Each structure stands twice: as structure tokens, then as C-alpha cells.
């Protein structure tokens, strides 16, 4: 009996429609990961050096290309946003924006990883595979229109990251960071999951569109379940975004993980966390804004203060950047707290500029640390301006951008976020954000001073620093973006303005 | 009324799991505690699903299936990391894994 | 009491009966048997060699990676069972989907095999 006859007897299930063009970025990233695994499983000879990195960068570039095509489609007034895969994924300007941000994070980190892996004698496709899969998970989080899909994306992102953190398994710090990240990460995603269960119980659905519709149409008699769900969801997202008080893992893991992986964590993983936070809270739970806004307000204040104050007392540059990344998360939360279109677009602008700044920063740290990934103390940067003037200048640009000096993208990012907070009447928060940026400016200047104004007497020169091609390209791109967008931000602002998330009910 | 009993069971399991993660030092026991939390979520999901209509029930049960598989993947990675630590330090005591502080 | 709980009453009765039965039989034995303890009777093994050293020894774990792989592949079967039950209603779509799913799993297995994980160490 042929299969056709067998199938003819019974009623068919309506198969969900999958929009191939809309899922192309995801499929390209996952496909590239599988391809890399296949190559490494089936071939015995070592491919030419850099092959894996090139494949990864090409895949991310293709993903960005397909995202560009999608952008034209979703910003077209007539067609607009839509859902695909049975209402599981939303394709709107917001999704496309984050596809670009996360793919950029993958590509830049892969360029940094290329030389790092050879230097540490770890060359192989595994890190790239994990990076691609992790990035794909992040994109799923950003596109998710269903809490199940948010959770699956988060876990794909995290599980790959746990392994990546411990990738340099000969370094005790790397192993330790993997263990800490895993225990706390699994713990926090369990909280997130419990929160999802609560929201599902309170609203009867996991589809974001249906939840929003339900909350708009009904007034809940008992909001306890829903509010408990909010709090637990915030724990989960706050952990990934490293917001205080869920930040304790950040310094240790950023310090211990291989530096290119740290760059990926601070860019793509953080972006994905904010993507999910924005879509779930700002868009879906808009009706209950007054209930969750104070929570985010408190978290934002804590994050800003703790991040910038604790950064100052560190001596390890990777740890400093970890705390500074906590305070940057606070700035993005200021935009989230505003819960307006302006706030969201400011947060998006911040995420994009921060991606370039932080990948650049950790890129320089990768190069300076030298073989063994050891030299991360401030003394390794002493006199860098004499040994490597170009690299020192590059690093200065990133540091000034993080400090928020005008003519860099960092300044505008902070400016828009604080502007959004002021327009939403959160004056106190805006003030705290400004003060904390003044405090953290001290930290960045400390590193700049170490690079430029150190007398050579007595101080032994730091290790020799080599700038390989891949890392050079990544740093060049990051500097170009930081400076050009700092001077001519209009186009990026225009994109961020059109990337406000929408939630669509499952029927559409 | 029935729902409450399941939710209570879920909450108790959740609390035991949280206690285990916070109080236990042994890496493997911490992993088991995390599993316990995930299973408490599964109970909640299926219980909430039962209260809704058919469509809601399917959502809850399918979600529980996903949680089971994700938990397995997570524990796979977790055990591998614990083993990595064990092979180098011959301990699975999480309090002794403390090179980085501050 | 709800019907649901009443249905569990049977279980409680069974449990209670079992407990009573055990207590009764052991208690009866204790009442009837003579009790004349001496040190030899209290050793773990009345004949043979006395045990030496700690009871806890470490067994060498050669197979943990098999165990890890087993857990992963075993749990993935969770998705295959519902698919198998509804195979006919899903038609070719389901067949292709499951083909892709299994392909990815097999790729993982092939990778593990090529990395020499499946060898006995």
C-alpha cells in the first residue's frame, strides 16, 4: 500500500503556513551552524585557516541582507506587520531591527574569535556553531509572539552561552564562569518559566496577542496571579540583561569567559533580553503599565547606581567593563520605563550603538590580553599609546562613547533615553541617570589616562600587542559606526522610530 | 477548588527547589533542585490548562513537553560543566569554586 | 469531601492496611521468638571475611558521556510519540518535519561519534 493511499483515509490537520522569506534570517543562521557541524564531522583534513569565521560572518551578512528585504515589506504602509508559523513569530520593524543587531553581534564577535581561538590553540568550528545557534535563539526571542517561543528562544540563547563561557577549558576562570553562569542562569530561567505559568493561568493563553486582547477586554477581579507573573518574568529578563539585583553573575562571568564570548554576551545576549522585555512588557502588558512601571523604575535606579559606583573600585578592565555594562543596562531600562514609543525607540538606538561600542571595547581587550587571555589588569594598558597608537586611539573612542562624550553615538544614545524619560515625566530617574553617567565617566577616563599619561620610568612595558586582520576589521567597523552615527544619527534614529513592536492576535 | 491543590503542590515543589539551589553546595544536587523547579512549573502549566477549554489545555500540555526537553538539554550541559570542574579540582562543592571575587 | 478525594480514600485504606499488616506480623514474630543476643549474631555477615575500609568507594565513571547522550536522545523521543500517534493526520507535512528533526539529531550523533565520544575509554 502506498503512502498516498494510507494518508487519503483520514482527515488532515491544517498545516501552519510558514512565510519562508520572514524566517529566512533564522534559517540561514541555523543552517550555517548545521553546515559547520557537518563539515567538521565529515572531513578529516583541517580547512584553510579562517574558514569557519568566514562562513559565520557570511551567514550573518546574509541574515542582515534578508532582514533588509523584510524591512521594506513590514514598513510598507499597506502590508505592515504580520505573524507567521501559526502566530508564533511576529514580523515587524522591531523583529527586523533586532535581527540586524544580533546578527551584527555574531559577525563582530566571530571576527574577534577567529584569531583568539588560534592564539589559545582551541581552533575548531564549535564556538562558531554555538554563537550562531545562540544568536538564532536571541532572534527567536525578539520575534516571539508567544510566551512558549520566548522561553524556547531564551533557552537556546542561554544553553549555548553556558558552553561558550567555559569554552577555554584549560583556564580555571573560564570553567568557573561557566559553572556560575549555568547555575544562576538555569535558576533565573526557572523563575521566568514559573512567571509564564502564572500569566498563562491568569489570562488563559500564552499568545502575546491574545493576552493583550484579553487584558484590554476584561478587568481582572484578582490580579495577584498576573502581578506575580510580572515580577517573575522581570527576574528572568533582568538576569539576562544583567540588571541589579539580578546582576551578581555579570562581573565573574564577563571576567572569566573567553573575551570574544564576553563581547557576544554583552552585545547579542543583552540585546535579546531587552527585545523580549520590550515586546512582552511595553507592548503586551501596556494595559497594566501602572503596575509594572514602578518595578522597572526601582530596578533602573539600582542598576544605574550600583553599576557605575562599583565599576570605579575595580582593577581588572574586563570587570570594570562588566560593571559598566550593568550601568548601561540601567540606561536602556530608563527608556523601557518611559513605556512610550519615544522611550522604545530611544532604547533601540541605545542597544544598537552599545552593540558596536562594547564589541569594540572587548575586541581591544582581546588583543591586549595576549596569549593565555591573562593581561586584563589596568597595568597591561599602561603606555599603550606608545606601543600601539592606533589601537589606543580606537580604544579611546569606545571609552569616550561609553562615557557619553558628544560627537559619539554613546552621547546621543544617553541623550535620547534621558529625553524620553523627561517627556514621560520621570524627572527623578532622568536626574539619577545623568548623575550616574558623570560618575562612570571617571572610570573611563582612568583607563584613558593609563594609556596616554603614564611615565615609562619604573613601569615595565606591557606585553606586545598584535592586531590580526579579522579583529582589525571588526574594530574598524565599530569605530566607524560609533563616530559616524555620533555625527549623523538621522538615518539610525529614523529606523529606530519605525521599529516599535506591535502585538498581533493569533488570528492574523 | 481542584486547581488550588495542584497549584499548592506546584508551589511546594518550587519552594523545595529554590531552597535546594540556595542551601546545597553540591553541584549535582543544585542541578536536581533546578529540575524540581522546572517540574513544579510543569504541574502548574498542566493544571492551568485543565481549567481552560480544550485549546488552552493543549497549550499547557505542549508547553510542558517543551519544558521537559529543554530541562534535559540544560541538565546535559550542566552535568558536563560539573564534570569539567570535577576533573580539574576533584570537587563538586560550589563554594570552593571561587577564584574570582569582588 | 469531593468525589476526587473520595476516590483516593481507597488508596488511603490500602496504605493503612498494609502498614498494619507489616506492624502486626513483625510484632507477632517479636512476641513469639526467643531473644538471646551475642556479639557473633550481631555482625553483618555471620560467616566469611570481615569487611575492611569504608563502604563508599568511588566507581570509575567510564560511561557518563553515554549517559548524557542517552538522556538527550531519550527525551527527544517525547516529540516523536505524539507525532507517531497522529502520523496519518499530519500527512506528508509531518513526515518531512520529523525527517528534518531526526536529521538534526543524527547530525549531533555523527558529531559525537567523529569526536570519539562513543569509544570505550
Plain-language structure description:
The complex is a heterotrimer of chains A (508), B (102) and C (121). Chain A has helices at residues 3-8, 20-42, 51-74, 93-119, 126-143, 147-165, 172-203, 208-217, 224-240, 249-256, 259-284, 289-312, 317-338, 341-369, 384-387, 389-403, 409-423, 427-452, 469-487, 490-497, and strands at 82-84, 89-91. Chain A is an all-alpha fold and 508 residues long. Chain A has a two-stranded antiparallel ribbon. The longest helix of chain A is centred in the middle third of the chain and has 32 residues, at 172-203. In chain A, 61% of the residues are buried. The mean pLDDT of chain A is 90. Chain B is mainly α. Chain B has three helices and no strands. Chain B has helices at 2-23, 27-51, 54-89. At the A-B interface, helix 6, helix 7 and helix 10 of A face helix 1, helix 2 and helix 3 of B.
The general outline of chain A is: globular
Low-confidence stretches of chain A: none
Please give the CATH architecture of chain C.
Answer: Up-down Bundle
CATH H level of chain C: which superfamily?
A: NADH:ubiquinone/plastoquinone oxidoreductase, chain 3
Average the pLDDT over all residues of chain C and give the rounded result: 83
Helical amount of chain C = 55-70%
Overall SS class of chain A: mainly alpha
- Number of helical elements of chain A: 20
Q: What composes the largest sheet of chain C?
A: none
The multimeric state of the shown protein is heterotrimer
Question: How far apart are the first and last residues' alpha carbons of chain A, in Å?
Answer: 39 Å
Could you estimate the helical fraction of the residues of chain A in percent? over 70%
Order of helices and strands of chain A: HHHEEHHHHHHHHHHHHHHHHH
Major sheet size, sense and barrel closure of chain A: 2 strands, antiparallel
Evaluate the radius of gyration of chain C.
Answer: 28 Å
Amino acid at each position: 500500500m502506498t503512502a498516498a493511499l494510507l494518508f487519503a483515509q483520514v482527515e488532515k490537520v491544517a498545516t501552519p503556513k510558514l512565510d519562508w522569506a520572514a524566517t529566512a534570517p533564522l534559517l540561514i543562521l541555523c543552517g550555517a551552524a548545521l553546515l559547520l557541524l557537518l563539515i567538521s564531522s565529515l572531513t578529516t583534513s583541517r580547512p584553510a585557516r579562517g574558514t569557519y569565521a568566514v562562513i559565520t560572518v557570511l551567514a550573518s551578512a546574509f541574515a542582515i541582507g534578508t532582514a533588509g528585504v523584510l524591512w521594506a515589506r513590514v514598513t510598507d504602509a499597506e502590508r505592515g506587520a504580520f505573524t507567521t508559523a501559526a502566530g508564533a513569530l511576529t514580523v515587524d520593524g522591531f523583529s527586523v531591527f533586532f535581527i540586524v543587531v544580533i546578527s551584527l553581534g555574531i559577525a563582530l564577535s566571530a571576527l574577534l574569535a577567529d584569531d583568539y581561538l588560534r592564539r589559545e590553540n582551541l581552533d575548531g568550528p564549535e564556538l562558531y556553531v554555538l554563537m550562531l545557534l545562540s544568536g538564532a535563539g536571541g532572534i527567536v526571542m525578539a520575534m516571539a509572539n508567544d510566551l512558549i517561543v520566548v522561553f524556547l528562544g531564551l533557552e537556546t540563547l542561554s544553553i549555548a552561552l553556558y558552553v561558550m563561557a567555559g569554552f577555554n577549558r584549560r583556564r580555571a576562570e573560564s570553567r568557573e564562569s561557566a559553572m556560575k553562569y549555568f547555575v544562576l542562569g538555569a535558576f533565573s530561567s526557572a523563575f521566568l518559566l514559573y512567571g509564564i505559568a502564572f500569566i498563562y493561568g491568569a489570562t488563559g493563553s500564552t499568545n502575546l496577542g491574545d493576552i493583550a486582547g484579553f487584558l484590554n477586554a476584561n478587568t481582572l477581579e484578582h490580579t495577584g496571579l498576573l502581578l506575580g507573573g510580572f515580577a517573575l518574568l522581570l527576574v528572568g529578563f533582568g538576569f539576562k540583561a544583567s540588571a541589579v539585583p539580578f546582576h551578581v553573575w555579570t562581573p565573574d562571568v564577563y571576567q572569566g569567559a573567553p573575551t570574544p564570548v564576553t563581547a557576544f554576551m554583552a552585545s547579542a545576549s543583552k540585546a535579546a533580553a531587552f527585545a523580549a522585555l520590550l515586546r512582552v512588557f511595553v507592548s503586551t502588558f501596556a494595559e497594566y503599565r501602572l503596575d509594572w512601571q514602578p518595578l522597572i523604575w526601582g530596578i533602573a535606579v539600582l542598576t544605574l547606581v550600583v553599576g557605575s559606583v562599583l565599576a570605579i573600585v575595580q582593577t581588572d578592565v574586563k570587570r570594570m567593563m562588566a560593571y559598566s555594562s550593568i550601568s548601561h543596562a540601567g540606561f536602556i531600562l530608563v527608556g523601557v520605563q518611559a513605556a512610550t514609543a519615544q522611550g522604545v525607540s530611544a532604547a533601540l538606538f541605545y542597544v544598537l550603538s552599545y552593540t558596536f561600542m562594547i564589541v569594540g571595547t572587548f575586541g581591544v581587550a582581546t588583543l591586549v590580553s595576549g596569549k593565555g587571555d591573562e593581561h586584563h589588569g589596568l597595568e597591561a594598558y599602561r603606555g599603550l599609546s606608545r606601543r600601539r597608537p592606533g589601537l589606543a586611539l580606537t580604544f579611546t573612542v569606545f571609552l569616550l562613547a561609553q562615557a557619553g562624550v558628544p560627537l559619539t553615538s554613546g552621547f546621543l544614545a544617553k541623550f535620547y533615553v534621558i529625553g524620553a524619560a523627561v517627556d514621560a515625566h520621570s524627572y527623578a530617574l532622568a536626574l539619577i541617570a545623568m548623575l550616574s553617567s558623570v560618575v562612570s565617566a571617571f572610570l573611563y577616563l582612568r583607563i584613558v589616562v593609563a594609556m596616554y599619561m603614564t611615565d615609562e620610568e619604573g613601569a615595565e612595558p606591557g606585553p606586545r600587542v598584535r592586531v590580526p586582520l579579522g579583529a582589525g576589521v571588526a574594530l574598524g567597523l565599530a569605530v566607524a559606526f560609533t563616530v559616524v552615527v555620533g555625527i549623523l544619527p538621522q538615518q539610525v534614529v529614523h529606523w529606530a522610530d519605525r521599529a516599535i513592536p506591535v502585538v498581533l492576535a493569533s488570528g492574523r | 477548588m481542584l486547581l488550588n491543590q495542584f497549584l499548592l503542590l506546584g508551589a511546594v515543589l518550587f519552594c523545595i527547589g529554590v531552597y535546594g539551589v540556595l542551601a546545597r553546595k553540591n553541584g549535582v544536587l543544585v542541578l536536581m533542585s533546578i529540575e524540581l523547579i522546572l517540574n513544579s512549573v510543569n504541574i502548574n502549566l498542566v493544571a492551568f490548562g485543565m481549567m481552560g477549554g480544550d485549546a488552552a489545555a493543549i497549550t499547557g500540555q505542549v508547553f510542558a513537553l517543551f519544558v521537559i526537553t529543554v530541562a534535559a538539554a540544560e541538565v546535559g550541559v550542566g552535568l558536563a560543566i560539573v564534570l569539567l570542574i570535577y576533573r580539574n579540582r576533584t570537587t563538586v562543592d560550589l563554594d570552593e569554586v571561587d577564584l574570582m571575587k569582588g | 469531601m469531593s468525589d476526587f478525594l473520595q476516590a483516593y480514600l481507597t488508596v488511603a485504606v490500602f496504605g493503612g492496611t498494609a502498614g498494619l499488616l507489616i506492624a502486626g506480623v513483625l510484632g507477632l514474630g517479636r512476641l513469639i521468638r526467643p531473644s538471646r543476643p551475642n556479639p557473633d549474631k550481631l555482625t553483618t555477615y555471620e560467616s566469611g571475611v570481615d569487611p575492611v575500609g569504608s563502604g563508599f568507594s568511588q566507581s570509575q565513571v567510564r560511561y557518563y558521556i553515554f549517559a548524557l547522550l542517552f538522556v538527550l536522545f531519550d527525551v527527544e523521543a517525547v516529540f516523536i510519540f505524539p507525532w507517531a500517534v497522529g502520523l496519518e493526520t499530519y500527512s506528508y507535512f509531518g513526515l518531512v518535519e520529523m525527517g528534518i528533526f531526526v536529521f538534526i539529531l543524527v547530525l549531533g550523533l555523527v558529531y559525537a561519534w567523529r569526536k570519539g565520544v562513543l569509544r570505550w575509554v
